[in-house]
Amino acid sequence: MSDKNLHVAAAIIVRDGAVLAAQRSHGMKDGWELPGGKLEPGETSEDACRREIREELGLELGVLWPFTTVRHSYPEFGIEMDVFCAPVASDAEPQMLDHEALRWLGRDELLSVDWLPADLEVVRSLGLAWSDVFDSMHM
């Protein structure tokens, strides 16, 4: 990793057999990502994930299942990203409070958007483990 390392938490938000992809309205705005953000001092990954999703999408997350941790180096910084699976109710509608676009993607659509590199690693793993993830979450 580079000299500047960020610890972030992200959510694989699941609703009706689809995963939420988000495109930021600033920063690395051309790529798609799993929503989330940086941990604040003293904050756990789970707490950061819940806070970021509330701030970015206006959604309250219930149960979080740890999925993976990814380490990735971008040219300007490195990240360690703790990723959680987060089912939401069928009627849960995310708000675009911090994003330019949102899309719900089924398994066959996962690679239809241009994911940021760290998120792409997670999405590829999710595609391979799709049935296991959805069965374990009773989705």
What CATH calls the topology is: Nucleoside Triphosphate Pyrophosphohydrolase
Which strand-content bin applies to the residues? 35-45%
CATH class: Alpha Beta
Number of domains: 1
Mind explaining what this structure looks like?
The protein is of the alpha+beta class. The chain has a single domain (5-137), classed as Nucleoside Triphosphate Pyrophosphohydrolase (Alpha-Beta Complex), CATH 3.90.79.10. The protein is built from two helices and seven strands; from the N terminus they run E-E-E-E-H-E-E-E-H. The protein has helices at residues 45-57, 117-136; strands at 5-15, 18-24, 32-33, 36-38, 65-73, 78-87, 99-105. Strands 1, 2, 3, 4, 5, 6 and 7 form a seven-stranded mixed β-sheet that branches. A hairpin with a 7-residue loop joins strand 2 (18-24) and strand 3 (32-33). The longest helix has 20 residues, at 117-136. The radius of gyration is 14 Å and the shape is globular. The mean pLDDT is 88.
SSE layout:
Blueprint: E1 5-15, E2 18-24, E3 32-33, E4 36-38, H1 45-57, E5 65-73, E6 78-87, E7 99-105, H2 117-136
Briefly characterize the structure.
The protein is α+β, with helices and mostly antiparallel strands and 139 residues long. The protein has a single domain, classed as Nucleoside Triphosphate Pyrophosphohydrolase.
Protein traits:
139 residues, EC 3.6.1.55, 8-oxo-dGTP diphosphatase, alpha+beta, 7 strands, 2 helices, Nucleoside Triphosphate Pyrophosphohydrolase, hydrolase, 35% strand
